[in-house]
Each structure stands twice: as structure tokens, then as C-alpha cells.
Amino acid sequence: MKFHSDLSLLDVDKLPQNVYDLNSSYFYVSLLPRELKLRFLSRLNPEARRAFTPILNVTDEFVSEDECDCIIFPPCSPYMGFMEYMDNHSHTLSTTDKPVVAIYFSSDDSVYDVGHAIQLFRGGSYRSLNQDNVHGSLYVVADYYRGVLSPKELKVSFCGCSTNNNIRGEVLSVFENYDYFNSINRNMWGGDDRKDTADRDSYTIGPSDNNKREFVENMEDSLYSLVVRGKSNATYRFVESFMMGKIPLLIETDYMLPFDDIIPYETNMVIVPYGEDYDKALREFHNSHTEEELYNIQLENRSIWEKYFRDDSAYYNVKSLLSKRML
Questions:
Q1: Which of 44, 105, 240, 298 is 20 to 30 A removed from 15 (C-alpha atoms)?
Q2: Model-level pTM greater than 0.90?
């Protein structure tokens, strides 16, 4: 399958420099000519460069509009509204007869009717409210895995902000009652040692070595990783849990999970609907598995990250999905 995009609409030097604002742009930047990939990577902060360097493993590149099977819009800024994003590409929509791929990512859970000619990849929103041509996108994260697997001990980690969504704050307040819960509550786990906040400078600088180490050790020390929505109905904790080879404890709020038709989420996560008894569900899962089974799930989850969630792997899985839908 071949893709086209109007690169005159792209200014690589104006793309964000951090993982948080780049998020689901992995598919688009994977298709850039190599010299533009190298330029893009050279501008990123160290964490983002670590996360996005695997795009160099992708050999596909954009082709001309005449040669392509579909057209891809450049990913929107996370601070751009959906209607503005689509308006920016209204001319292309009105003049092409090719299928279109749009990549929309912001803290926006609203549902948009995009018709059936567009395959839309987005973060957040709700699975049950979206058409089947709207797909859950994923966050690209840097790889901090050090091969540490946890024994069969009931421990749950969390690192993040408790105040960016009422649901998250409520869920965290429940888990704080349990001795097995190990949380680090801050605006962002990144930032530097001088600015441990979610302001723009910290986003641009990226996490300090001290905060990276604290984050990694927090997850390594626990068998389970709590995953609960943030500002939008999505969170970095989901992909980070798989990256670290841990078992996600997902508080289900009608998530749009990426590649949910091919990944065995039901067997490799603890999924508890929001508002139910989280502790009971967790203990039932934990007690129904042997230590060997829990080790194997951790290994499988790390393998899932490598096979589906690392940005070069994610690119090829999205390409396969689009091929099935469009060709």
C-alpha cells in the first residue's frame, strides 16, 4: 500500500520536540524521506529521540498522488480543534477521489461524524460512540525496559497527576486505601529537577535522569500498573505498562484500544469497569494465576509492546489495518 501527503504543508522545524505533543504522529513521520526523518530526530529532546528513532527502520516513503492508494493529512497540533484541522484540508477533500487518512490527537473526547471515506485515528473518545472507521491511536513512548519481572506479590504502581480528571482523582483516592498501592503523584513524571510541573518548558526539556529513574523503579517494583484516563479518555500509562512488561490494571471507561481486534487484551490485563469493586476484581485475577503464569503474562506484554506499540511496529500494523480496509 502506498501513501501520499502534501509535504509543502509540513514544516519539520515547527513540529514539537517532545513525546507528549508528538504522540500519534509516528505513522506520518515514519513515511518522511530519510533526510527529513534525520532532521526531525535531530530537533527532539533526548526522550523523544529515544522514542522516535525506530522510524528509521521504516523503508516506505510518501509517493506522488498519482501513485498512491490513499492520502494522509499531516497530524494536527494537540492544541488544534478538529473542525479547524479538517478545514485546513478541505481543498484536498473536495478535489481527491482517493481514500483519506486523518490523524487527530488532542484532549478532546467529542464524537465527530467523518463519513465513511476517511479512516480517522485519534486518541481519547469512546469506543461505543464512534463509527468503525474511527480507530484508537496510541502514544509512542521511550523504551526504559531493563528486563525486570515481578514475582507474585500484589503490588500496583502509578505515576502521574491526580487532578487532571475527576474520574482519575476518584479512582486514586480509592486505591490509596490499600497497602499494595505505590503511587507517585505529580503533574508529570517528566520535567527537570528545577521544574517538576506540566508547563511548556518542562515538556520541551523532557524528563531528568532522576525522574526517569524514579519512574522506572516505580513500575519495576510492582506486578500491576494502574491505568486510568487523564484529560481525555486515554493515558500514556497504558502503553508504558506494556513497554515495562507489567500487567495493566485498566479502569474501563469505554476506551478505544489500539489494535483491539488482534491483541489479547482480555487475557493480558485486568479490566475493571469504572465504579465497580477494583480491589475485588484485582484479587480475583491475581489469585487465579500461578506465579509462572504471571511471569509469562509480563513477558507477553513486553512482546506486545515490541510487536505492536514501538513506533516502527505500530506503523506496519496501521498499514496492515488500512490495507484491509481500503484495498
A1: 240
A2: yes
